[in-house]
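name: query_chain
kind: protein
chains: 1
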Amino acid sequence: MPLSEFGYRLVNALYELIFKEKMSPETQQFFTGTSYVAIGTLFGSLLTFVFYIFGARALGPTNFGNLALLSTVGVIFSISMQMCVLGGLKYGAEAHSDSVQSRIISTLSLQTALLTVGSIAIFALFSAQLSNVFGISIELYLFAIAYGAIVTFFALTTNLLRSLFRIRAVALINALQSVIMLAAFLIFLSADIRSWQAAAFSLYLGYAAVIVIVVVYLRQYIKLQYDRFWSRKLASYAVVTLPAGIAGAFMGVDKILINKFITTAAVGIYNAYYLPSITVAIALASIFNVTFFPLASKSRDKLSIFRKVNKAVPYLAAALLPSMLLIEFIIFIFYGSQYHFSAELGLLFAVAATTCIFYQCYSALMASEGTSGAKVTALSAVIALAVIIGLNVTLLPVIGISGAAVALIFAYLTADLYLVSRWRVLGRASQKTR
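structure:
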């Protein structure tokens, strides 16, 4: 029996066991698309882990902490740069003609370019003040601005592919980005260049190469045209989703707080747990959401999807919790003698990763409802951020890194419960079609 057929039968059997019904054609399309993304993303994630393992070993906790701070601050900077990207994904996926998709994509690309240039100018102008706020050096601050810009265009190109349902292409670029990034870093290490700057340049190169390839691939859709209707539409959706984007980006504020309350080396230790738990969780959720969000956006019965997700949650939790703990333990073996694994801390991060996956899925479903759902998602992200900051400030001085892990658990769990409590928002889409 071919491996693909075996995989299909296994997924089909599990689906019927959990939901007590056969797969619909739409569900089959979802799992087929997800399988393509899973292959590419898992391969890419494996190479990314190799990159970070080499980074942790070669850089040591302090410089590894600097690398974590660079990406954290860079993602915060990207908020203003990519604020319109999610709207482009939603409306692009809903469009039914190539001409409409081309207008959306072209307008979105120009908007993102203008926002990026403007943001870079502002962040550079206030570099002295903002670097002091984040508690990092000017050099690290400037590297973070560059990271924010390049991550923005990577998110843009990836979401353009998703809006066009080029799922196989998404899988390929995820893998390719990791291949280039790892290859570049290995070249630096072979030349005995062991610094967080070398790791940063490797990240930049991986993202930049993929951006160029996708732009060439989608050249028929990207034109020098600016549609005012879609510009206003994207801007309106961006205003609604911006609080969620801000809160989501600032979820990494725990690393900044650890740097302030403890040390940069502590950030490196924290990141060593974060990568095989939360980062893996986000990667798994992204595999799911690459296909799930566009399909959910097109669905007229989102409440039915919500009920199916609820049914799957207990089964997923039972599988995810021990799996996350095992992944952490294995990864720590490769980190080297500078990093010691704590079962207690590992369990806390495993629980946090499990609740994180549920949050990513529920928030994607809610955001697919449109502006009303996006408002709920935005508020859930703000709630999570408030919990993160409050508990970190309270617990870090008392129990150290464990306090940050506890804060993650309660932040994601609180946000999950809030999203579930607002299920009636999803029912409105079904009522409109009756």
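note: Residues 429-434 have pLDDT under 50 and may be disordered.
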